[in-house]
Design goal:
The complex is a heterodimer of chains A (500) and B (121).
Chain A lengths: L9 E4 L3 H14 L2 E6 L7 H5 L2 E4 L12 H10 L4 E3 L9 H9 L3 E2 L4 H8 L1 H10 L7 E2 L6 H11 L3 E5 L9 E3 L5 H16 L4 E5 L5 E9 L5 E13 L2 E7 L6 H17 L4 E10 L2 E8 L6 H8 L3 H9 L16 E8 L1 E2 L5 E2 L2 E2 L3 E2 L6 E5 L6 E2 L6 E9 L2 H14 L1 E2 L6 H9 L1 H5 L6 H5 L11 H13 L4 H4 L19
Parallel strand pairs in A: 1-2, 1-4, 2-3, 4-5
Antiparallel strand pairs in A: 6-9, 7-8, 7-9, 10-11, 10-13, 11-12, 12-15, 13-14, 15-22, 16-17, 18-21, 19-23, 20-22
Chain B lengths: L1 E7 L2 E10 L2 E6 L2 E5 L8 H6 L4 E3 L4 E6 L6 E2 L4 E7 L2 E6 L4 E6 L6 E2 L4 E5 L1
Antiparallel strand pairs in B: 1-2, 2-3, 3-4, 5-12, 6-8, 6-11, 7-10, 8-9, 10-12
Classes of the chains: A alpha+beta (500), B mainly beta (121).
Chain lengths: 500, 121
C-alpha cells in the first residue's frame, strides 16, 4: 500500500566500520547529509572522518553503544536526522528498534517492525514457512527454553544438530552438537554467546545438515507491494558458521533450480508484505533445498550481487524508505559475469585466526578495473578488541568464475596491510584449493581442509637475510604511527628510487 | 612504507618495508610478513607462550570459566579455562596430561594477551 513520498535530507547511521562508510557513500550520491552515531572507540575510523556530523554513544562495547536503543534514538533526534540506517548486525533486525523509530517519527531504513517480528525471529519465521508448505529442516523452535525440554527435543531431532541464537545471526551463538553427552555444555556456551551478542539467550535447535551448500537469495520489496529477487549468492565457505568468502551467482545451480528457489524466496517475502532489502537463506543438498532462515536486513556480502546486476542496493534501500517504487521489473534483471567477496579480518592466520588487534600501519589497495575495496579503517586507526575485527572487504568481478578467482588471487597478493596481521594468507589458501576452484565446496569445506587453520608459511633464508639488511636501512616510524590522519602513500610498486 | 631491492646470495629480492616499534613489516612476492626477532628486542609474552608448562591468554579478553583447581590432575586436551573475546568463547585446553601447579586468574578477570593463566608441573 503506497504512502506519500518523503525526501530524506539527513540520515543517521547506527553502525560502524566499512558498512558505515558504505552508507555514507550512498548518501553522498543522493545528496543526503549524514550523522554517524558512534562509540567512543570508533572516533578514529574512516566513517567518523567522512560523516557530515557525528554523535557519540559514549564509552564501552556493543551493549553500551550500538545496541542501546534509547541512545541511538536520542542521537538521531538531537541531530535532526529524519531517518536511521541500521546497517547489519547490531539493531538492524531488532523489531523494538524499528518500532522505537516509528514512534518518534524517524524513518527506519529497513522493513516494517511487523515484518521483522514475523520473519526476523527465526522461530516465528519457521512456523509461517512451514504453514506455507515450504521445506524446512527438522528442528525445535519453541518458546519453552527449559533445559529438560531442550534436551528432550535434541534427542528427538537427532545428532548432529546445531544450537542457534533465536535473536541472532552472523555465526554467533551457534554450536554443533555431535553427541548427546556434549549437549548441556554446548547449550550453556551458546546461550552465553547469544546473550552477550544479541541481548537474548533464547535458542532453537535444528538438525545439522552436513555437507550442504549455503545458497541465499537477495529479495527486495517496495511500499507498493512489489517484491523482486536479485538472484543468488553462495556462502558455503564458513569458519565456525561465520562467512569468509561469498560469491554471486552460485556455481552450483541449474537455471531451473535457480528460478524455482528464487520463486520460493519471493513467496516467503510477499507473505510478510516485505519492504526493503532482505535475504532468504537455504541449504542445498543432493538437489534438495531447505529453508534455513530469512534475514531482514542488508547483508555484508551485498556487493557481489551489486556487481553481477549493476545495482546499488544501499541507494535502493534509501529510495524505497522514501516511499519510491522499485524502478524496474523482474524481467529487466539478468546476471552478468561472476563476482566474489573476501572478508578481510585482523587476525593471525597462522595461529588459528586469533584476533590481531592494534593500530593499522600503511595500507595499499591495488585499485584496477573489476576490483572493489570496502574499508572501514585507514592508517593510524586502531582495530579494537571491543568489536568485530573486520578491516575491509575485497570484491572482484570478471566475465567468468575462473577469471574472477584469478583476479581475486592477484588482488589479495598485491594488497598490503601493515601493522596488524590479516587473514590474507588464509583467503589465498582457500581460493587456490582444488575443491573451491571446482565450485563443489560445501559448508564442511573449512572443517575438512583447514581444521587447524593455516600451517605457518616457510620463510626462506634469503627472505630472512633481506629482512635483516632492510631493517638496517629503514628508520623506525613509531612517532608517525601515532598520527591519526591518513597520509598520502606513494604507490609502492613504482621502481625503487634508492636507499635512505 | 618504502620499496627496497637488495641482492641476497646472488638473487635480487625486492620488497616493501615498514618499521614501527622495532617490528619490521615486509611485503614481498605477494605475501606479508612481520619480523619481531630481526631486532634484538625482548618479546617476553611470546617467549612465555612457547613454554610448555604455561597456559597463557592468546588474546585480550575476559575469563568466564575456571574449570580446574590447584593440584588437580588433568588429561591432554581437557578444558582448563574458558574466556570470552569479541563475543566468541574460546576454550583453553591442557597441552598435555599434567597436574595443575598454579592458577593465576579468576572468573571475571580482564586479561591481556600473553597473561599467564595456568601453570602446569
Amino acid at each position: 500500500m503506497a504512502g506519500k513520498q518523503i525526501k530524506i535530507s539527513k540520515l543517521a547511521i547506527a553502525n560502524r566500520g566499512e558498512v558505515a562508510v558504505r552508507i555514507i557513500r550512498a548518501c553522498q550520491e543522493l545528496g543526503i547529509q549524514t550523522v554517524l552515531l558512534h562509540a567512543e572507540a570508533d572516533r578514529n575510523s574512516k566513517a567518523y572522518r567522512l560523516a557530515d556530523e557525528t554523535f557519540s554513544l559514549g564509552e564501552g562495547g556493543s551493549s553500551q553503544t550500538y545496541l542501546d536503543i534509547p541512545k541511538n534514538i536520542q542521537g538521531a533526534l538531537k541531530t535532526g536526522a529524519q531517518a536511521i540506517h541500521p546497517g547489519f548486525g547490531f539493531l538492524s533486525e531488532n523489531a523494538d528498534f524499528a518500532q522505537a523509530c516509528a514512534k518518534v517519527g524517524i524513518i527506519f531504513v529497513g522493513p516494517k517492525p511487523e515484518s521483522i517480528r514475523m520473519l526476523g525471529d527465526k522461530i516465528s519465521a519457521r512456523k509461517i514457512l512451514e504453514k506455507m508448505g515450504l521445506p524446512t529442516v527438522r528442528g525445535y523452535h519453541g518458546q519453552d527454553q527449559d533445559v529438560q525440554t531442550l534436551r528432550k527435543e535434541a534427542l528427538r531431532i537427532g545428532f548432529p544438530l546445531i544450537i542457534k541464537a533465536a535473536a541472532g545471526g552472523g555465526g554467533r551463538g551457534m554450536k554443533v552438537v555431535r553427541e548427546a553427552e556434549q549437549f548441556e555444555e554446548l547449550l550453556g556456551s551458546a546461550q552465553r554467546e547469544a546473550l552477550s551478542g544479541f541481548g537474548s539467550s533464547q535458542v532453537f535447535l535444528e538438525r545439522y545438515l552436513e555437507g550442504a551448500k549455503h545458497i541465499e537469495f537477495q529479495i527486495f520489496g517496495d511500499s507498493f507491494g512489489k517484491v523482486l529477487h536479485f538472484f543468488d549468492r553462495e556462502c558455503s565457505v564458513q569458519r565456525r558458521h561465520q562467512k569468509i568468502i561469498e560469491e554471486a551467482p552460485s556455481p552450483s545451480l541449474s537455471t531451473e533450480l535457480r528460478l524455482k528457489m528464487a520463486e520460493t524466496a519471493v513467496v516467503a517475502a510477499k507473505a510478510a508484505n516485505y519492504e526493503g532489502a532482505g535475504t532468504v537463506e537455504f541449504l542445498l543438498k543432493d538437489g534438495e533445498y531447505f529453508f534455513l532462515e530469512m534475514n531482514t536486513r542488508l547483508q555484508v556480502e551485498h556487493p557481489v550481487t551489486e556487481a553481477v546486476l549493476g545495482l546499488d542496493l544501499v541507494k535502493l534501500q534509501i529510495k524505497v524508505a522514501q516511499g519510491e517504487p522499485l524502478p524496474f521489473e523482474q524481467n529487466e534483471l539478468s546476471l552478468r559475469g561472476h563476482a566474489i567477496e573476501c572478508r578481510l579480518y585482523a587476525e593471525d592466520s597462522e595461529q588459528q585466526g586469533i584476533p590481531s588487534t592494534g593500530v593499522l600501519g600503511p595500507v595499499h589497495w591495488p585499485e584496477a578495473p573489476g576490483r572493489r575495496f570496502e574499508a572501514g579503517f585507514e592508517m593510524g586507526d586502531e582495530i579494537t578488541p571491543l568489536f568485530d575485527p573486520m578491516i575491509a572487504k575485497i570484491i572482484t568481478w570478471d566475465m567468468t568464475r575462473e577469471l574472477c578467482l584469478q583476479k581475486m588471487m592477484k588482488t589479495l597478493s598485491d594488497s598490503i596491510i601493515f601493522g596488524v596481521k590479516t587473514n590474507i594468507p588464509y583467503l589465498k589458501a582457500i581460493i587456490s584449493h582444488p575443491e573451491f576452484q571446482s565450485g563443489k565446496m560445501t559448508t564442511q569445506f573449512i572443517n575438512q581442509y583447514f581444521p587447524q587453520g593455516l600451517t605457518p608459511r616457510k620463510i626462506s633464508a634469503e627472505l630472512e637475510e633481506f629482512a635483516k639488511k632492510a631493517n638496517l636501512l629503514i628508520s623506525d616510524t613509531s612517532s608517525e604511527a601515532s598520527q591519526t590522519i591518513a597520509t598520502q602513500i606513494p604507490d609502492p610498486f613504482l621502481k625503487p628510487w634508492g636507499f635512505t | 612504507m618504502k620499496p627496497i631491492e637488495l641482492e641476497i646470495q646472488g638473487k635480487k629480492i625486492s620488497g616493501i618495508v615498514w618499521k614501527v616499534k622495532g617490528q619490521l613489516w615486509v611485503h614481498s612476492n605477494g605475501e606479508t610478513y612481520c619480523f619481531d626477532d630481526v631486532v634484538a628486542k625482548k618479546s617476553s609474552s611470546k617467549a612465555k607462550l612457547k613454554d610448555p608448562n604455561l597456559v597463557a591468554a592468546p588474546m585480550p579478553g575476559k575469563i568466564t570459566q575456571v574449570g580446574v583447581q590447584k593440584g588437580q590432575d588433568v588429561k591432554a586436551e581437557q578444558t582448563l579455562i574458558v574466556m570470552e573475546a569479541m563475543k566468541m568463547e574460546y576454550a583453553l585446553k591442557a597441552p598435555r596430561a599434567a597436574k595443575i601447579k598454579n592458577i593465576s586468574c579468576v572468573v571475571g578477570d580482564q586479561v591481556t594477551l600473553g597473561k599467564i593463566l595456568v601453570e602446569l608441573e
